[in-house]
Amino acid sequence: MPYSNSYTKNVDDTNCNRIAEFQKVSFAEFQRAIIDILGQVYQDKDNLIKDMYERVSIPSRATKGSAGYDFITPFGINLYPGETIKIPTGIKVKIDDGWVLQIYPRSSLGFKYRTQLDNTVGIIDSDYYNSDNEGHIFIKLTNDSKEEKTINISAGQKIVQGIFYKYGITYNDDNTKLRHGGIGSTGE
Question: Does 3 have pLDDT greater than 50?
């Protein structure tokens, strides 16, 4: 049957599953991450870190038909060609079992600047929510510009998008291990 413009659905009656909830990490976790990543210069700058924390917003979709949930940066970034930065988003996500959140660079940053995630695609498993760092989602971006373009990203600007996917396991999978950490913790 050909596509018809006369048939539309509301978001509530689509085939989309409601399977996750984004939340902010605690201020203590966010503060620890900022000091760890941006340096000890922030050690006694509680008000500056609180301002960043207040800018953290729950990821959302730009439109009803968008698949990706946009994540923002809580602080401004100037990323020169070849440079990399690790960004604490201040966000965690509670995901139903059988689902995964995959993180991709925003199309505009990739297209204009060759901005790339250092791990190509970020994978946020459902059990990461219970990890030692509260399931805090970090983004590591690299400016891979071949045209010597500097990326200027303002605080509160969208940097990556996350899309939820259903996944399966094999019939003979009997894994019962529990996660305790973040990147690399499941490879031990």
Answer: no
